[in-house]
Amino acid sequence: MSYPTTAALLKLDLNPGKPPILYTETPDDVSAWAAEHHRALRALVTEHGSLLIRGLQLWDAERAGAVLHRLAPARMTDKEAFARRQEYTPGVYSSSAWPPNQPMCMHHERSYVLQPPGLVLFACLTAPSAGGATAVADAATVLEALPAELVQRFEQEGWLLTRTYNDEIGAPYAEAFGTDDRRAIEDYCRAAAIAFAWQPDGSLSTRQRRPAVTVHPVTGRRCWFNQIAFLNEWTIEPEIREYLIEVYGAESLPFNTRFGDGDPIGPDVIQLLNDTYTAHTARERWKAGDLMLVDNVRTAHSREAFQGPREVLVAMAEPLRQAQCPPTAEVSAA
């Protein structure tokens, strides 16, 4: 079977409200197909922000992993993870463990680390019976749609992420940092501009200030690039939020976000952010075997609530240095 030419990859299905979709015949060797078209596919992702590829039949972890390895030969380790993941092969993970009935709102993967991924790859082994789409939203468009005063404040101050690691909610610190050696964790935090404090009960609390707006390393467009809404207490379902506050206290939630100066972010701001994302969301339901590539700076992504089994593999690549993707606010340990 002959592979589609690079020119054929330009024949995309572009429809409003959906990500760009590339339909392809199933190649005999999907790994070789990915290697042959790697650059062309990456160029399309830069141009459009995301790309859903349908027809590769990535139905098992071995086949999907081979393609992810070809498209992202230098995959990133998931340090500072906020939720548990299973690692299938080096740098290829399961989706974050998150209740199926709870959506994961729009965010940019690991935008709280010093070197976030520039590219995120998803491979759907099993599609859910309902819901579960990995929806996307253009970060430059979202930025332009937000109130100028709010954007200006976040540009000047950045945003603050606070975390309290425990063994019940989210990833424990040993899993998030890849070690239970306190000295190694402290060294990592210092190098990553993260303020830390060990609590009397043995838990770890951290604070880190990060930029909310950045510049795309290729196009130069300003992008709304953060996880302010996703990791904020007001995005959590009310009954779950009340439970977490009762158990951990308002100042020791597993994760929360604030304005860069430490002021709380009210529910009205979080609702505005999520509504703006919703107004600019594109979605396509997963089909088993699909592959999706997302420019992590240009495009936010979400995971919608779902029913039935859902298995999606994730890989992250192309770590961004500040020189490539300059922030608009100071990065610090707060």
TrEMBL record:
The keyword Transcription regulation does not apply. InterPro entries: AlphaKG_dependent_hydroxylases, TauD-like_sf, TauD/TfdA-like. Its cofactor is Fe(2+). GO terms for molecular function: oxidoreductase activity. GO terms for biological process: antibiotic biosynthetic process. Keywords: Antibiotic biosynthesis, Iron, Oxidoreductase. SUPFAM superfamilies: Clavaminate synthase-like. Residues 28-316 form the TauD/TfdA-like domain. This is TauD/TfdA-like domain-containing protein. It comes from Streptomyces albiflavescens. The lineage of its organism: Bacteria, Bacillati, Actinomycetota, Actinomycetes, Kitasatosporales.
